[in-house]
Automatic annotation (TrEMBL), chain A:
Pfam family, one: Ras
CDD domains attached to this UniProt entry: RabL2
InterPro entries: P-loop_NTPase, RabL2, Small_GTP-bd, Small_GTPase
Family: Belongs to the small GTPase superfamily. Rab family.
One Gene Ontology term of the molecular function aspect: GTP binding
Full protein name: RAB, member of RAS oncogene family like 2B
Cited PROSITE patterns: RAB, RAS
Membrane topology field: Lipid-anchor
Organism: Suricata suricatta
Automatic annotation (TrEMBL), chain B:
UniProt subcellular location: Cytoplasm, Cytoskeleton, Cilium basal body; Cytoplasm, Cytoskeleton, Microtubule organizing center, Centrosome, Centriole; Cytoplasm, Cytoskeleton, Spindle pole
Keywords: Cell projection, Cilium, Cilium biogenesis/degradation, Cytoplasm, Cytoskeleton
GO biological process: microtubule anchoring at centrosome; vesicle targeting, trans-Golgi to periciliary membrane compartment
Superkingdom as given in the UniProt entry: Eukaryota
Pfam name, any one: CEP19
Name this polypeptide is given: Centrosomal protein of 19 kDa
Native organism: Suricata suricatta (Meerkat)
Cellular component terms per the entry's GO annotation: centriole; centrosome; ciliary basal body; spindle pole
Similarity annotation: Belongs to the CEP19 family.
Length: 223, 171
């Protein structure tokens, strides 16, 4: 699926490990309105960073979640979607995904499954929101059911980048999901690291037969 | 009094069309006397079946003699009128020309735009932008609201979008 087209080595993705940074990626076919949604959310505040070498646009945004400042990088595809596949680095360290289709074009809905398969190949667990865009063009589509979202138990948002319906809510919810995913996995990683450390200690403790060895594992019980 | 200043304040465009013989763009508008329609005939010169319609439209719209009258007429509409004229000059029937215009100015919902090159994709996007701009609520609009939330509940009794396949394995 994802091939080895130009690897963006100058893109520093280490920062996404930092506590206050999250990365949210946008997926979906050409012309479903991904960039227009970004622009509607960020309004005047948007300063997209074009990385044309990688067919990538970055939008930086500062958000506040539960009183804490979060630096959000939104990744937008800038034409790379034409390959119906994204480079692996696009998915790397992403904390949430916004997956868009156009309610006026069936093919963009059908292609969601390709996008979703690729997403799960790289990021099996991250939160993903399905977005039905352009409802201003055909409001009746909001009265229909879309099985794709139901099948994978994904939230479905009806939005319009043109008139603004649900755009702000979509992005704020995506940020919230990204932050909570990050914190939960971080807790999990901390637990794993803790377990490994304890494991090391146990190994050493083997030389001291009188020591009680099970105590350290207790700290791993679900919190 | 300078007529250009005069019409800028008063002219309300009502209808705009094309006459084939002799070729002219015709504007029906209202001036300061409400309810009284006036007609302005703008002759089309140096236009052949090989002419570029978007350039012709631009030239007319920027023509110092007409520009104030045409302020409310979109470039797109003028371009379309020139295309109708060009179709006539090429010997096409009106129906043929209209169908051609329709084809070039609407999106085929079945078309996979991922498969188009940059130029073709840009064309489709500009067609979509037309509707986008028509429906767009801009920040400058007096009733603009940044955060608009509308609930569309996805409950059980909704009708299917018709895009899902019947089989349970597929969506």
């Amino acid at each position: 699926m994802a091939s080895d087209r130009a690897i963006p080595c100058e893109l520093d993705q280490e920062k996404y490990d930092a506590d206050d940074n999250v990365k949210i990626i946008c997926l979906g076919d050409s012309a479903v309105g991904k960039s227009k949604l970004m622009e509607r959310f960020l309004m005047d505040g948007f300063q997209p960073q074009q990385l044309s070498t990688y067919a990538l646009t970055l939008y930086k945004h500062k958000a506040t979640v539960d009183g804490r400042t979060v630096l959000v990088d939104f990744w937008d595809t800038a034409g790379q979607e034409r390959f119906q596949s994204m480079h692996a680095s696009y998915y790397h360290k992403a904390h949430a995904c916004i997956m868009v289709f156009d309610v006026q074009r069936k093919v963009t809905y059908k292609n969601l499954s390709t996008w979703y398969t690729e997403l799960r190949e790289f990021r099996p667990e991250i939160p993903c929101i399905v977005v039905a865009n352009k409802i201003d063009a055909d409001i009746k589509m909001t009265q229909k059911s879309f099985n794709f979202a139901r099948k994978f138990s994904l939230p479905l948002y009806f939005v319009s980048a043109a008139d603004g319906t649900n755009v702000v809510k979509l992005f704020n919810d995506a940020i919230r999901l990204a932050v909570s995913y990050k914190h939960n996995t971080q807790d999990f990683m901390d637990e794993v690291l803790q377990e490994l450390e304890n494991f090391d200690l146990e190994q050493k403790d083997d030389d001291v037969p009188d020591q009680v060895q099970c105590g350290s594992l207790e700290s791993l019980s679900p919190s | 009094m300078d007529p250009a200043v005069y019409v800028r304040m008063m002219c309300t465009a009502k209808k705009c069309g094309i006459r084939f013989q002799p070729p002219a763009i015709i504007l029906i508008y209202e001036n300061e006397m409400k309810g009284k329609s006036r007609q302005r005939i703008m002759p089309v010169r140096n236009f052949s079946k090989f002419s570029d319609c978007s350039r012709a439209a631009e030239q007319l719209k920027n023509n110092p003699r007409h520009k104030n009258y045409l302020e409310q007429v979109s470039l797109r509409q003028l371009e379309k009128l020139f295309r109708v004229l060009r179709g006539y000059l090429q010997g096409q029937s009106l129906a043929e020309t209209m169908e051609q215009i329709q084809r070039e100015t609407t999106i085929d919902p079945e078309e996979d735009l991922n498969k188009l090159d940059d130029k073709e994709l840009a064309k489709r996007k500009s067609i979509m932008d037309e509707l986008f701009e028509k429906n767009q609520k801009k920040k400058e609009d007096p009733n603009f609201v940044y955060d608009i939330e509308v609930e569309f509940p996805q409950d059980e009794h909704l009708q299917s979008c018709g895009w899902d396949t019947e089989s349970a394995d597929e969506f």
